[in-house]
Amino acid sequence: MKIQILGTGCAKCIKLTENAEKAAKEMGVDFEIEKVTDINKIMEFGVMFTPGIAIDGQVKSVGKVLSVEDIKKML
Amino acid sequence: MLEEKDVCCGGNIKTLILCCAGGSNVGQISNRVMVDLDKKGVGNAYCLAGVGADLSGFVESAKAADTILIDGCPVACGKKTFERHGFNPTRHIVITELGIEKNHNFDNVEEETNRVLQKIL
């Protein structure tokens, strides 16, 4: 499973990354996390608000720091 | 208005403006109105086609924002596109409800656009 965190690297992006890692580990799934910080690559997703999270290429949420439990429901 | 979103890197963008941009005078007026509202700083022009194409980044961004959706006519393709994804625009503008008759004459689009802008601003 590929988890992409969309954001230029602010504190909220970092928190979302931490939450995603924790959620994936607690769910016991094989995963890799990619931090997408290039604004042009973020725009290619069509995302207008960050942080965002994409799972296997599908954007699941934008503009919010999802909790660990919220992310678990998406995995 | 929607509640304040937890936006970080996206800066101050909170309102997205989308339009049907259809193949009639009112469809093209909707596009011009969207551009004019963007220029005036009301919000950011955004792609309804991306939402219609089920592109997840577009769908989720539109859900997360305040949205001004401009449809040309009561067929309301834009609103139906939103509804397919289970949400509604914050503000919905239908050009024909503002005194502009739908037709295929593009000669008066600029003047008709100005009439619409006077009514919605």
Overview of the molecule:
The complex is a heterodimer of chains A (75) and B (121). Chain A has one domain (2-65): 3-Layer(aba) Sandwich (Glutaredoxin), CATH 3.40.30.10. In chain A, helix 1 links the parallel strand 1 (2-6) and strand 2. The longest helix of chain A has 17 residues, at 11-27. Chain A has a four-stranded mixed β-sheet. Chain A has 75 residues and is α+β, with helices and mostly antiparallel strands. Chain A has helices spanning 11-27, 39-44, 68-72, and strands spanning 2-6, 32-36, 52-55, 58-62. Chain B is an alpha/beta fold and 121 residues long. Chain B has one domain (15-102, 109-120). Chain B is built from five helices and four strands. Chain B has helices spanning 25-39, 48-52, 56-64, 77-84, 109-120, and strands spanning 15-19, 44-45, 66-71, 91-94. A four-stranded parallel β-sheet of chain B has the order 2-1-3-4, with helices on both faces. In chain B, helix 1 crosses helix 5 (109-120). Chain B is globular, with a radius of gyration of 14 Å. The relative contact order of chain B is 0.21. Mean pLDDT of chain B is 92; it is low at 1-7.
Q: Short summary of the structure?
A:
The complex is a heterodimer of chains A (75) and B (121). Chain A is of the alpha+beta class and 75 residues long.
- Major beta-sheet overview of chain B: 4 strands, parallel
Integer-rounded radius of gyration of chain B: 14 Å
**General form of chain A:** globular
CATH class of chain A: Alpha Beta
> What is the total tally of β strands of chain B?
4
Average of per-residue pLDDT values of chain B: 92
The amount of beta strand of chain A, in percent, is 25-35%
Number of domains of chain A: 1
Query: Quick one: overall form of chain B?
Result: globular
Count of helical regions of chain B: 5
Q: Could you spell the SSE succession of chain A in H and E letters?
A: EHEHEEH
The count of DSSP E runs of length 2 or more, i.e. the number of strands of chain A, is: 4
